[in-house]
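F.,

This is the one I mentioned.
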């Protein structure tokens, strides 16, 4: 009977000693997974910010392009008005 109690106590104490090591390994694995997910999220955030910045640049460039186009169109209208005025004067003579 003593041997059975001693063996049972021995197995119980071994189990109690092994349990913290198993929990530590699981915790470490969970921490590694969380760190990997955090890195993925940080990369995604960086990519999103980069896309937003590129979007702002494209928008700014398109605005500048539109402003340039408008100024070219206005210059062309002025030149056409001058040419029309000259043509009208030539017709009147």
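My design for it:
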């Amino acid at each position: 009977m003593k041997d059975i109690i001693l063996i049972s106590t021995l197995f119980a104490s071994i189990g109690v000693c092994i349990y913290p090591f198993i929990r530590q390994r699981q915790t470490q694995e969970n921490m590694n997974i969380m760190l990997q997910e955090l890195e993925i999220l940080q990369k995604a955030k960086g990519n999103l910010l980069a896309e937003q910045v590129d979007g702002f640049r494209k928008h700014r460039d398109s605005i500048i392009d539109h402003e340039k186009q408008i100024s070219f169109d206005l210059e062309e209208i002025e030149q056409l008005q001058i040419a029309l005025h000259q043509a009208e004067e030539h017709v009147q003579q």
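The chain has a mean pLDDT of 85.

Talk soon.
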